[in-house]
Design brief:
It is a single chain. The protein is α+β, with helices and mostly antiparallel strands. It contains four helices and six strands. It folds into two domains: 47 residues; 101 residues, Jelly Rolls (Sandwich), CATH 2.60.120. Strands 1, 2, 3, 4, 5 and 6 form a six-stranded antiparallel sheet that branches. Helix 1 packs antiparallel against helix 2. The protein is rod-shaped and about 105 Å long.
Length: 174
């Protein structure tokens, strides 16, 4: 509680009383102003001494806020690999639909990069037509910013259709 406010109020009331004794102010005016001062000082002290209520969040909101506030990106994949000509490598990633995979894949030869579902990966392996949710074809470098459409096991496929082996650097965070 700020005691200086109380002290300031007392000094002001005494000043009013002195003005009343010296007949500079009428005693009625002194009484009204003194009463108002005491009331206002009391109201201010009461307001400032109330404990502040904390904002109460539901448990779900609190957990979400804590999770977002303190969540540090974790490395999902950090690797350099060699992909032989006309071959591919793949990585299995268990991803949540709420996560976003960010990072970069670079190569010294052009490569194809695909994020595939289990079913698309099976089609890819069998040489059948497939679709990918995210990726790029014939690139040396690809910045990754992939948000899965569903929580599932995803397959990151790096394919080298070129004539030479490719040295590929993969750096991915969630």
């Amino acid at each position: 509680m700020p005691k200086w406010i109380l002290g300031l109020g007392i000094v002001f009331v005494f000043l009013l009383i002195i003005l009343g004794f010296t007949n500079i102010l009428n005693w009625v005016v002194v009484g009204v102003l003194s009463t108002a001062t005491i009331g206002i000082v009391g109201w201010i002290i009461n307001y400032l001494s109330k404990p502040r209520e904390k904002t109460v969040f539901s448990e779900d909101i609190r957990k979400k806020l804590e999770h977002e506030q303190f969540k540090q990106p974790k490395t999902v994949l950090e690797e350099t690999c060699i992909v032989k000509s006309k071959e591919y490598v793949f990585y299995v990633l268990d991803l949540d639909a709420k996560e976003t995979v960010k990072g970069e894949i670079t190569s010294d030869e052009t490569i194809n990069i695909y994020f595939l579902t289990k079913y698309s990966f099976r089609s890819f392996e069998n040489g059948e037509p497939f679709s990918y949710e995210y990726g790029a074809e014939s690139v040396l470098r690809k910045k990754i910013d992939f948000k899965p459409s569903k929580t599932a096991t995803w397959y990151l496929v790096i394919e080298n259709e070129g004539k030479h082996k490719a040295t590929v650097n993969v750096n991915l965070l969630v």
